[in-house]
């Protein structure tokens, strides 16, 4: 296996303060250099992405007085994929008085991530979570409220308290509108320049520092260079490497992958999350999957028939012939076990032949008990828009017939490596939200993505980027700088190459085949043999892509075929690194389940003596093996032990 990568020097996070974990964030904020308000006007920051992390960061830095350039490939910042997050946002407010606290949120998140995240980062996230809710309420986010007017809470997987704030089934949408309002206020004030329909295609690095980006105007095809004193990537995750996922079809890895090729380490790429609550695949014609919010697991009960091959209408199967398998196997958490465990359990019952629906790839999510207990109006009030969405997609009424769900690719815990300040291994390049790796370890608990995105954008980055910018403004960079000319030339050459191949196969056909390889060999279960096969097939397919892809049109126009081709080319390289990372980690943890490493009853088996580290990969060069840098993970406040939700 060592033929696939080279082992390099150990890496450390030098920015995290020592001392009691509860005091580290205050300590770092005080020790970080400040930039006075007059000097902020002389400094510039580029932010790529306008989801929760990017929009909140741009709004906050603009409000602080920095000159911000914001970029997104959508026609409006409001179309960022954060808008699709439905279920809720975590915060340790303890409004329910049910035993929650900052420490418990910290503990649940470290445990939920299967002890593969940093204690310092997770504790900070838990602290900041409390401030996020106040911020969003002040912005007018319409969180659900109880009869007395207090904010309501519900539970999500992996916890035994109610700490998830929600706005019906459209929390991400409402939070994004709040961040968007704050962003547009700064656009109006002139501190933020908004660039829509622009895709970042290269990072500009001058004298070892990130100093700008090369972007393509997606309407005209013009290749533009933009410069700043620092660059922030808030460009989301890479779940679309699997082709079918719950991500919007435009979601891609290009921004972070281009930075990786310029020297930014990519951490834990094999940690991808399979979400248990998606509408099952209905045919080969599909280009994406639809997520049914995890919040449904609060009141819906998950079951399959006890007997394999039972094809009866679910309403005709009596209670005694149903297996509520999550409640049976994990009585302490029941239907609210973490996502990785719920997903594998669904796969197991379907592998036994007890799956339901076409192809036997589905399980029931049943609200009959909830409707009986609460009444249909109460269920409609909490979940109505989700039920409507399910009915529009499937043609089935979930108030009368149980929903069918099956696991699908959703979130990625891996991302660019960052230190405690959210700075990557390239000075001046900061990474926030799902684009970095820092907070979730090997598995993200539900309702923590919105929490991390807003924590990074509103509270963390604005208090750490100043430490770097205090040394600025840096020497002026312009189009004549050799590094800039080289970066722009590389982008043009890549576009010209894609347009000149003129082969026989569509971009989508390559993407779909790559997705099948990744799902089969680097999906819910991985093995040494399968991953080796995947690497071979990915390399063969990538070679064919560069010889036989057909990209229609020209660069000087709106060209979605060209956009997709560039993104899929990056997915090929990422997919290979994901498989190498999954192969080198010979343990099961969180979303990474190695068939060779499981307990007698089929649960994930970690090997803390060998793999208690972050795997930070350095780009080795085109055609060269990547270099592995290990960051040891040390736990002072949470005891590392095999997870149990029973």
TrEMBL record:
Keyword tags: Flavoprotein, Oxidoreductase
Protein name, per record: Fumarate reductase/succinate dehydrogenase flavoprotein subunit
UniProt domain Fumarate reductase/succinate dehydrogenase flavoprotein-like C-terminal: residue ranges: 511-645
Ranges of residues in domain FAD-dependent oxidoreductase 2 FAD-binding: 45-450
Coiled-coil ranges per UniProt: none
Source organism superkingdom: Bacteria
Record organism: Streptomonospora halophila
InterPro entries: FAD-dep_OxRdtase_2_FAD-bd, FAD/NAD-bd_sf, Fum_R/Succ_DH_flav-like_C_sf, Fum_Rdtase/Succ_DH_flav-like_C, SdhA/FrdA/AprA, Succ_DH/Fum_Rdt_flav_su, Succ_DH/fumarate_Rdtase_cat_sf
């Amino acid at each position: 296996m060592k033929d696939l990568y080279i082992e390099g020097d150990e890496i450390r996070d030098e920015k995290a303060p020592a001392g009691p974990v509860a005091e580290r964030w205050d300590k770092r904020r005080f020790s970080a250099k400040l930039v006075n308000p007059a000097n902020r006007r002389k400094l510039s920051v580029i932010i790529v992405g306008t989801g929760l992390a990017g929009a909140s960061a741009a709004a906050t830095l603009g409000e602080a007085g920095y000159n911000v350039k914001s970029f997104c490939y959508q026609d409006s910042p409001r179309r960022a994929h954060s808008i699709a997050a439905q279920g809720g946002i975590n915060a340790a407010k303890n409004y329910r008085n049910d035993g929650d606290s900052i420490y418990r949120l910290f503990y649940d998140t470290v445990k939920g991530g299967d002890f593969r995240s940093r204690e310092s980062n997770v504790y900070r996230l838990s602290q900041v979570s409390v401030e996020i809710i106040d911020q969003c309420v002040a912005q007018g986010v319409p969180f659900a409220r109880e009869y007395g007017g207090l904010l309501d809470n519900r539970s999500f997987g992996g916890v035994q308290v109610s700490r998830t704030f929600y706005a019906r089934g459209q929390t991400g949408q409402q939070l994004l509108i709040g961040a968007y309002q704050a962003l547009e206020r700064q656009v109006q004030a002139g501190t933020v320049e908004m660039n829509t329909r622009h895709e970042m295609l290269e990072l500009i690095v001058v004298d070892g520092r990130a100093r700008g980006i090369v972007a393509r105007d997606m309407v005209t095809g013009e290749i533009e260079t933009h410069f700043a004193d620092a660059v922030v990537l808030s460009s989301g995750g890479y779940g679309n490497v699997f082709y079918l996922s719950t991500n919007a079809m435009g979601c891609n890895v290009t921004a972070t992958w281009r930075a990786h090729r310029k020297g930014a380490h990519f951490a834990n790429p094999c940690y991808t999350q399979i979400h248990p609550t998606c509408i099952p695949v209905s045919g080969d014609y599909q280009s994406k999957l639809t997520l049914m919010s995890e919040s449904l697991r609060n009141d819906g009960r998950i079951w399959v028939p006890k007997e394999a091959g039972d094809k009866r209408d679910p309403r005709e199967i009596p209670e005694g012939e149903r297996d509520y398998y999550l409640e049976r196997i994990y009585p302490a958490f029941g239907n609210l076990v973490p996502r990785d465990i719920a997903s594998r359990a669904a796969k197991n019952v379907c592998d036994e032949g007890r799956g339901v629906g076409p192809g036997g790839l589905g399980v029931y999510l049943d609200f009959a008990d909830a409707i009986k207990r609460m009444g249909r109006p109460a269920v409609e009030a909490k979940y109505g828009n989700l039920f409507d969405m399910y009915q529009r997609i499937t043609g089935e009424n979930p108030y009368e017939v149980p929903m069918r769900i099956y696991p699908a690719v959703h979130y990625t815990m891996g991302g660019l490596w960052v230190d405690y300040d959210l700075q990557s291994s390239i000075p001046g390049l900061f990474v926030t939200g799902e684009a970095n790796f820092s907070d979730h370890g090997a598995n993200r608990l539900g309702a923590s993505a919105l929490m991390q995105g807003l924590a990074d954008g509103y509270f963390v980055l604005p208090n750490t980027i100043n430490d770097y910018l205090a040394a600025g403004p840096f020497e002026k960079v312009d189009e004549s700088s050799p590094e800039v000319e080289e970066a722009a030339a590389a982008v043009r050459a890549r576009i010209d190459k894609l347009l000149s191949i003129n082969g026989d196969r569509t971009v989508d056909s390559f993407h779909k085949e790559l997705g099948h390889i990744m799902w089969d060999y680097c999906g819910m279960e991985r093995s040494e043999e399968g991953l080796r096969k995947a690497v071979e097939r990915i390399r063969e397919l990538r070679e064919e892509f560069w010889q036989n892809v057909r990209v229609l049109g020209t660069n000087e126009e709106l060209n979605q075929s060209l956009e997709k081709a560039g993104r899929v080319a990056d997915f090929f390289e990422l997919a290979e690194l994901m498989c190498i990372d999954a192969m080198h980690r010979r343990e099961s943890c969180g979303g990474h389940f190695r068939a060779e490493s499981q307990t007698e009853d089929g649960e994930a088996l970690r090997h803390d003596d060998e793999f208690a580290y972050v795997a930070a990969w350095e780009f080795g060069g085109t055609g060269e093996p990547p270099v592995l840098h290990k960051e040891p993970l040390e736990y002072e406040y949470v005891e590392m032990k095999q997870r149990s939700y029973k």
